Amino acid sequence: EADIYQTPRYLVIGTGKKITLECSQTMGHDKMYWYQQDPGMELHLIHYSYGVNSTEKGDLSSESTVSRIRTEHFPLTLESARPSHTSQYLCASSDFTVGYTFGSGTRLTVV
Amino acid sequence: AQSVTQLGSHVSVSEGALVLLRCNYSSSVPPYLFWYVQYPNQGLQLLLKYTTGATLVKGINGFEAEFKKSETSFHLTKPSAHMSDAAEYFCAVSAAGAGSYQLTFGKGTKLSVIP
What we know:
Shape of chain A: globular
Helix content of chain A: under 10%
Structural class of chain A: mainly beta
Distance between the termini of chain A: 36 Å
Order of helices and strands of chain B: EEEEEEEEEEE
Number of helices of chain B: 0
Strand content of chain B: over 45%
Strand content of chain A: over 45%
Number of strands of chain A: 11
Distance between the termini of chain B: 41 Å
Oligomer: heterodimer
Largest sheet of chain A: 7 strands, mixed
Radius of gyration of chain B: 14 Å
Largest interface: A-B, 25 and 23 residues
Helix content of chain B: under 10%
Number of helices of chain A: 0
């Protein structure tokens, strides 16, 4: 079944650790996005990609980085996690005509 | 550029009552419009969308929305609220046509359903 997957669903890590949040989709979508969302709050676009080897920063400044080496894979990396990075991270993909398909999210807590 | 305004960050209705969540948009070109629902600790799920054609759009779970160009609105309604409708709802807009792929989201409306 075509879908978009995020792992892990929940992550608690210590300050200073390097982490990678995984996002994969099986729909063949060219466009992929990362949003940051604090509980009960609005979504903030932090990164997007329109295809392989294409990445751009979003509206909200973020210390994270992304890569797009394969169409289906769009991981997000934090080189040195801090408590201010505690949030929910949502990945989405799109072929535009049907809107975005979202993953279930990764809830990150940095202690 | 596009923008979305959702009126009311929190709406409470009684079970069985009409649900009305308001969304107004701003767009310099014909818009594509979307409503998403988010349950706690989940991603966003597409409820319905308007691209072209019929202005009254029906979605999942008994929701519908009507595109009113003259009012730049895309309000979400459901005739009878159910407890399972309690969630956060996001309205989003995108510019129709090639070259613009990003959705602009509103700040969300949290719907509470009172038994």
